Amino acid sequence: MPHNSARDVNRNVSVIMVSYNTGPVLWRSIESVLMQEELHELIIIDNGNPTEVRNKLQEMETAEPRLKLIFPKSNLGFASGCNLGAKQATAEYLLLLNPDCILPRHTFSMAIDALNAYPEASVAGCRIMNPDNTEQSGSRRRLLTPWIAMVEFLKLYYILPDHPLFQRIHLHEAPVPDKPEFVPAISGAFMMVKAATYHELGGIDEEYFFHVEDLDFCYQVYKKGGKILYIPQISVVHYRSTSYVSPFFIEWNKTRGFSRYFSKNFGKTGFPGLTWLIIVTIYLRLFLRAIALSGTMLLNGKASLEQRRRLDDAAKRAAFLDSYSQLEPLTVQTADNSSESSIFLAGASGQVGLAILRRLLAANKKVTALYHSTAINFSHPNLTWKQGDLFQDTIDMENVETDTLVYTPALWLLPPLLDDFYKAGVRRLICFSSTSIVAKANSGNSFEKSLVAKFVWGEQEVAKRCNELGIKWTILRPTLIYGIGFDHNVCSVRRFIKSFGFFPVASPSTGLRQPVHADDLAIAVMSMLHNPGSYSKSFNLCGGEQLEYREMVGRIFDALGKKRLILPIRLLPFFVDMYSIIRNRPDINGEIARRMNHNLIFDDSEARDCFNYQPRAFLSAGINDLEPDFSK
After folding, report:
1. Where do the DSSP E strands lie in 253-312?
2. What is the pLDDT of residues 312-363, one digit of tens each?
3. Coil, strand, or helix at residue 599?
4. CA separation for the pair 172, 175 (Å, rounded)
5. Rg of the Cα atoms in the chain
6. Residue 383 bridge partners (DSSP)
7. pTM (2 decimals)?
8. How far apart are CA 223 and CA 206, in angstroms?
């Protein structure tokens, strides 16, 4: 492609994307790249995608002149794949981009502007975000040294968290700067660099297959006197773990990567004794991790639990939707305005979204269904799938005509998007919050406090903005959701019981619960789509009975056909807190165990009066409410 202007010469980007069994998010990632005005070419190194993916990529290459495909004879790995793509690239800038990253509009122009404003920068990165709009831990970080590795391994930062000697490698918990700033290291998921600089540095060390190569590249920049720029104004969503890869393969390459990193960069300098101690510790960790993975395989009868679970879940979701024809259509009140357009359903691949989508299809409603990365192999004449993220501007709403939005994802992401939905025609909104606003209001856990604050803010802002725009809103607060096999509460108990044959509870575990079936929530949505009595109101949606936490667990044992073996453990909250710290899982904490003895009961009488809400009893369908068979 000829370059006829200074802007063409200085502002064109070659994107290098290495793909191996990436999954359906690959297509959304490609789409987000092709929308960038400064894109010169997208070079995809196909390291071993399935035949159908390769065929589709080749069809796209024929139709899109900016797309170039490279098919190595074998899986080269990430580092070698990037270097191979860089040799073929012809643009001024290179962008190393993971194939499960979604770019917002104007990403390239913002990154190039920042590099021009900070000419001393050799490499640029950005905020790497999780799908829930939180920053990923590797987004910005310190240089990895043997001492920092020891601090991380032994978790010494808990001893003196503010001491400079006990700093963590990750910087994502630090306040987000209001302008670009230099950081020691960034994530390889998004790494922009001038092509000349990349080649001067020798590219990425090909001794790394995948993992750790980005840390090493940043360290080489540091040794050459270069600087790395972090651009907080750019937020790129990175899904992670979308490739179908054996966990043993991942752990082995992590171990090899870290061993290579420390022996190469610190083996003969500084404190070599500490360096080799770190390397020995790395291999010891691999040994322990292999034992844990082997135990998982034996308990679950699966070579790769997460890989199989993703595949099985996608198939189960498709079978669940296909069972819509078994439902008796519900009578739905029509809208006050003229002919009803498509209903826009956000969060269509989640448990509540799936239940609502099935009910809408059974009622012969036209639906535009938004999902994140879980593509579902199901089609219907009234159904249009749309992939994207609500907190990114990569969703093309110009072609969407809808008067009703049903919204199930995180509520706090909705308020900034209401203007766009209003412009698309939305005049009716049904969205989901949570009874956690009350249940976790007095939690001593900072993660849960933050979650409650987000829900409260989301509810207040949704009501305020909808009132300003004239959108008829309803907020629903469900209790403990179960019923179609995809929840993280009841199903977690089910999996624990099936794996270990018992379940621990915080004695005496007598707090009351009201678990609610996902399909009852879907029926409630259908009942209030255009019910004026539900406008500008919030409703609690509870299950059909109250039962003690201990009894709820006992019912799960019964449904599984297993003898009840419930172990009361007084120190369970302490043990769960320790697990949370060791595994860095703030969402799993001791407050969960403490609440086993708290009554979490809510009044849903207003919903019963307004739209005849009649939820079913817990596990009324037995095992089918835990492990549904939708093929029947």
Report:
1. none
2. 566 677 788 888 888 887 766 655 554 456 899 999 988 999 999 999 999 9
3. coil
4. 8
5. 26
6. 367
7. 0.58
8. 18
